[in-house]
Amino acid sequence: MAEMKKVKAAIVGCGMISGAYFNGAKKFPSIEVVACCDNFPERAKEKAEEFGCKASTNKEIYADPEIEMIINLSPPKMHSTINIEALEAGKHVYTEKPFGVDEADAEKVIKLAKSKGLRVGSAPDTFLGAGYQTCRKLLDDGWIGKPISATAIVMGRGPEKWGQAPFFYDYGAGPMLDLGPYYITALVNLFGPAKSVVAMTKKGSEFRTLGADVAEQYKDQYKPYGKYPVNVTTHLTGVIEFCNGVYATVISSFEAFGHNHPPIEVYGDEGTMCCPDPNTFGGPVKVLRKLNKDGWVNAPLSHIYSDNSRSLGAADMAVGIRNNRPHRCNGDLAQHVLEIMLSFDKASEAGSKIELKTTCERPAAMPLGLDDGQIPE
Ligand SMILES: NC(=O)c1ccc[n+]([C@@H]2O[C@H](COP(=O)([O-])OP(=O)(O)OC[C@H]3O[C@@H](n4cnc5c(N)ncnc54)[C@H](O)[C@@H]3O)[C@@H](O)[C@H]2O)c1
Asked: Do 161 and 216 have their domain in common?
């Protein structure tokens, strides 16, 4: 690993999440962020100074022959456009979630990448962390027997307090496209690809009112505050049928002030596994086995990367590029997850089951015993 030629990357979009990527990338020797850009050049300049890379423009980055990979951290509605621009420029592209906001654009990205022999990757990469890799090992090793069903529940009152509320209630976001990628990807990591979706979805109200506790940095962007329209469904509930036979009940909602459900639970014929928040890399993982008279026990985390390791998926893609092996957070997985998520509204509107058109390989498990920064070859 130490001898592998680093993949030089550029970050497009220097907003809130970019710091985690700049920091994360420093931990992984397979990747080096050499440039960044943003529609607001001062944001790129600030990040470039902080993290020691070059502030550029999109055009300069696309034209730079040294840069092999674009890390796309733009807002969701821009993802497919930037993915296509990057691929047209001959770069591999790793994008933040969701993979796109509609299926046609996502498919264009996949087809273009395949026609050019380039890689497409997508967040989330949290399922590669210690928490979900431990869950997967426990499941695959039979600790809860054969999985029969699961629940995945993410509910809150909505992100008004972050000041980005109009974005979250507009087409391309909502609870499913914003938080669903973590939950649905975690389920596909556990169970493999899905077959169908049934669902009912709705809006809690036609308008939301931006709260007074708006983050200072957004005050200029979203004036005037007040009522703004809700253009997406804000309470989605349904069942995903996985090809391995598991039925996962999913609730994704901005319509609850709080709840006490675990993020994800898996019910097997020999026990139950309570999984951590899939929007994090760590634990806890708890298991209740039918033969265990102590009841619930905390399972030790078997894998590395329990701290915030965003960039892990991009670093794994870099090793995949160099070693000519598939990368785990790949476009097929992200496209399948996107189709599952979009199928909730479709199933609700149609009042019937949606048979999924896309599929993917269950991503390879991470091996045990990696050192910090190490990615499997
Ligand atoms: N903020 C989080 O906690 C978080 C966590 C995980 C994932 N994400 C995802 O990461 C992505 C970015 O989120 P964020 O919170 O950083 O958003 P943000 O709005 O803070 O940042 C996005 C940045 O992209 C820039 N941008 C837009 N179009 C561009 C273009 N064509 N070229 C260059 N720059 C462009 C914007 O100017 C902005 O600075 C989203 O897809 C989001 O879902 C965010």
From this structure: yes
Same-domain pairing of 148 and 49? no
- The pLDDT, as a whole number, for residue 225 is 58
Domains: count for the chain = 2
Considering only CA atoms, which residue is closest to atom 39 of ligand 1? Answer: 15
CA angle 91–93–96, rounded 5-degree value: 155
The 10s digit of each residue's pLDDT in 247-282 is: 999 999 999 988 999 999 999 999 999 999 999 999
Q: Are residues 175 and 291 in the same domain?
A: yes
CA-to-CA distance for 254 and 295, rounded, in angstroms?
A: 33
pLDDT for position 1: 45
For residues 216 and 85, which has the higher predicted lDDT (pLDDT)?
85
Whose Cα sits closest to atom 27 in ligand 1? 74
Give the structural domain span for 84.
7-126+309-330
- How, if at all, do strands 264-268 and 271-275 pair? antiparallel
For residue range 224-246, list pLDDT tens digits in order.
556 788 999 999 999 999 999 99
β-pair type (92-95, 247-253)? unpaired
**CA nearest to 77, candidates 18, 126, 13:** 13
Binding site membership of 296 for ligand 1 (Cβ less than 6 Å): no
Domain at 166, CATH number: 3.30.360.10
